[in-house]
Amino acid sequence: MAALSSNRQRIDWPGIVFAMLLSTAIILPLVVVGTWAFTEIWRYPAVVPQQFGLRFWNQTLSRSDVWGALTLSLQLSTVVTLLSALICLPAAYAFARLNFPGRNILFFSFLAGHAFPKFGLLIAIAAIFLQLNLIGTFWGVVLIQLVGTLMFMIWIPVAAFQGVDRRMEEAARDAGAGPLRVFWSITLPQAGPTIVAALLLSFVGTFYETEGAWLIGAPGIRTMPVLMISFINNQMVIQYGAVLSVLLWVPSFIALMFARRVIGGSAFARGFGA
Amino acid sequence: MARLEITGVSKQFDTTTAVADFTLEVDNGELVCLLGPSGSGKSTLLRMVGGFERPTAGSIRIDGEEIIHLPPEKRPTGMVFQSHALWTHMNVFKNIAFGLRLHHAPRDEIRRRVEAVLELVGLTGYASRLTHQLSGGQQQRVALARSLVLEPKILLLDEPFASLDQHLRERLREDVRDIQQRLGITTLFVTHGQDEALAMADRIVVMRDGRVEQVGPPSEVYRAPATPFVAGFIGQMNLLEGIIDTQVFACPGLAARIPIADGPATLAVRPEALGLSPAQGQGMGIIHRAVDYGSHVMIDVELPDGHRVKSMMPESDAWTAGRPVDFNVGTILAYRDNVLIYRGAQVEEQSRPAGRRAVRSNA
Ligand SMILES: Nc1ncnc2c1ncn2[C@@H]1O[C@H](COP(=O)(O)OP(=O)(O)O)[C@@H](O)[C@H]1O
Ligand SMILES: [Mg+2]
Question: Is A174 on the interface with B (CB under 8 A)?
C-alpha cells in the first residue's frame, strides 16, 4: 500500500517522455496533413501557411468520382464486414468449442493466408478471378477483401469464445436455459465487446485496403484509397491528397467513437489478449 | 421433500477412472459432504448429479425418478460453483432473476422472490449492484441465491468457499448451514477441507481415487476412521508402522498395548492423544520443534529412527527444541490390511515401560 501511494505522488518522467514521443509521432503528421487540407498558399520557409481557405475542399467535393468512391468504399466495407461476420462467427464458435476431425489443420489454413507475402497471393487470386470474370467487379473486390478479413474475424472471435468461462454457461444451463438460450444470453454478451472490436477492425481494414482493391477492382471499381493514390500520383497538388486524407479519417474516427461507446477501455484491450 | 439415490455410478475419462462404482443415498433435508483430496473424483460425481457429465455406468435417481438422461436444464438440481460463475454482464437482480424469467414468472413475482432470496442470503439492498462491485463472499452468496431462488430439490455445492480467506469461509459455512437447515433442502457439498466437512455435514463421504473410503457422521469419521487413509486425512494424525508381538505394538521409540493377534500393524494416534512428559531417562524422543498457538502448543518429536510425531500439549516452558521427552499415549487406533482392527485407550503405566524397552532395544 505504501509503495502504491508514494508512486502516485512521484512524477513518472519516463512515462511522460514516452507519451510525448508517441503523441508527436502520431499527431504531428496528422496536424501537417490537416493543415495542408485547409491551405491555399504555403511556401517555404514559412512555418504557418500564408493563406487558409476551403478552395480545395470545394474542388475535391465537387468531383463526382470522389463521391462515387466514398459511397463505394462505405458499401464495400459494410458488405464485407457483414458477410465476414456471417461466415466467420459460427466458424469461430466451432473452432473454439467443438472438437471435430481436421480442426487444427482447418484453423491453421485460415491463418496461413497471412503467412505468405501478400502481393504474391493477390496475383495468384487475380489470375483465378480473371478466368471467373470477377476482375473489375464489385463482388470481385468483396471476395478479395473477405479473404483479408478472415484473419481477425476468425482469430479474435475464437479467442473471445474461448475466453468465456464455461462455468458461466453451465450455470445458465443449471438455471434452466437450453443451449441456444445460453449462447444468446451468456456466451454472446460475454464475448461481445471483443467481437465488436473484430468487426470494427474488419470494417476499417477493408475501408483502407488498397493493394487488393486496386489489383482486382481496376479499372471499373475505385475505392477511396485507390482514388487518393491516383490523385497523388497524377497531380502535384498536395491539397487534393490532403483533403482526401482528412475525408478518409472520417470512418476511422466514427469507428473509434463507436468503439468507445460500445466497449469500455478494459474490454477493448481484452480483445487483443491483454 | 427430495431424496437422492446414486447407485453404482462410474465415470471413465479416456484413461482415468474419475469415479468408480459409487453408491450413496442422501435423505430428505440431509447435508452430505464429499470429502477427499484433489483428484479424488468429487467434482466429477457432483457434475454427474447436476447433468454436466454423463456417467459411464450406474443410475442417479431423485425421488425415485431416473434423471441420468436429462440435460442440466431439465434436472431439479441447483449448482453453486467454486468460481461462483456469476454472469458479469448482468447485475445481481438479473443474475438471480434469469432462471425465473426463463420460466415466464410474472414480473411482480420475480421481484418478490428475488428480494426474498436476497434477504435469505443476507444481501438485502444489493439487487442493483454489479457483480464486480461485490466481495468474494458476497459473490458466493449471490451464486447461492441464484440457485436457491429456483427452489431446486437437490442443492449441489462444489467447494464454494475454496477461494475465500479462512475467516470469511467460517462465517459463510455457518450461514450456508443455517439456510440449508431452515429450508430443509437436500444438499451434496464437495470440499477438500476436513474442518469444513466436520463443521457442516450430517454425514461425510470420504473419497479416494473415485471410491468411497468411509461414510459416516462427522464424529464417527473423526473418532473411528475406517482406514489409515481416512485417519490421515481427517484432522491431524500420527501414523506409525510397527509389529504387534504378544499384544504389544512396538515401533522405534513407541510402544502400546494392543490386544490383537500378532503381526504387522499401523498405529494411529491423534496429537491430542499423545501426551508428553519430560524424560526420566534418555527419553523416547527428542523435541524437534514446538509451535505455540496460544491455546496450545504443537510439538514435533523426533523418534530414534528419524520419524517425527506430533503432540498437542497445553502451553508450558518444558517444550523447547532438543529436550528429551517420554510419551503418555491416550486413545489409539490400529489398522491391519487397511482395516481398523483396534480402537481403545491406553493405560498410562503400561505404555511407558513398554516405550522405554523399545527405545533401548533400538539403541
Ligand atoms: N473433463 C475431464 N477429462 C479428463 N479427465 C478428467 C476430466 N475431469 C476430471 N478428470 C479427471 O478425473 C479425476 C477426478 O477429477 P475431479 O472430479 O475434478 O476431482 P476432485 O474434484 O476430487 O478434485 C482427476 O484425475 C481428473 O484429472
Ligand atoms: Mg473439484
Answer: yes
Question: How do strand B285-292 and strand B211-216 relate by DSSP bridges?
Answer: unpaired
> A174 vs B50: CB contact, 8 Å cut-off?
yes
- Please give the number of the atom of ligand 1 that sits closest to the Cα of B34: 22
Cα radius of gyration rounded to whole Å, chain A: 23
CB B271 within 8 A of CB B238: yes
Q: What angle do CA B70, B191, B215 make, to 5 degrees?
A: 80
Q: Residues with beta carbon inside 6 Å of ligand 1?
A: B 13, 16, 18, 36, 38-44
- Give A-chain residues touching B150 at CB under 8 angstroms: 175-176
d(CA A56, CA B343): 101
The pLDDT assigned to B251 comes to 84
Collapsing DSSP to helix, strand or coil, B75 comes out as coil
Q: What is the pLDDT of residue A236?
A: 61
Domain residue limits, chain A = 12-52, 56-271
Is-above-0.80 flag for pTM? no
> Which residues neighbour A209 within 8 Å (Cβ) at sequence distance 6 or greater?
A145, A148, A223, A225
Residue with the nearest Cα to atom 3 of ligand 1? Answer: B13
For residue A159, what pLDDT is reported? 87
Q: Report the atom number in ligand 1 closest to the C-alpha of B14.
A: 4
Q: Which CATH number applies to A56-271?
A: 1.10.3720.10
- Closest residue of A to B74, CA-based? A176
For chain B, what's the residue count? 363
How far, in Å, CA of A239 to CA of A242, rounded? Answer: 5
pLDDT tens-digit map of B283-327: 888 999 999 988 899 999 998 888 899 999 998 888 888 899 998
Contact B98 A189 (CB under 8 A): no
A32 touches B: beta carbon within 8 Å: no
Residues in a beta bridge with B80: B157
Report the first-to-last Cα separation within chain A, whole angstroms.
25
A189 inside 8 A of chain B by CB: yes
Summarize pLDDT for B119-171 with one digit per residue, the tens: 999 999 999 999 989 988 899 999 999 999 999 999 999 999 888 888 888 88
Q: Which residues of chain B neighbour A165 with C-beta distances below 8 Å?
A: 83, 85
- Cα separation, A253 vs B264, in Å, equals 82
Q: Is A190 on the interface with B (CB under 8 A)?
A: yes
| Burial A125-150, CB ≥16 within 10 A → b, else e | bbeebeeeebbebeebbbbbbbbbbb
* Rounded alpha-carbon distances, angstroms, from residue B36 to B85, B159, B288: 23, 11, 30
Contact between B154 and B62 under an 8 Å Cβ cutoff? The reply is yes
Residue located via cell numbers 501511494: A5
Residues of B in contact with A99 (CB under 8 A): none
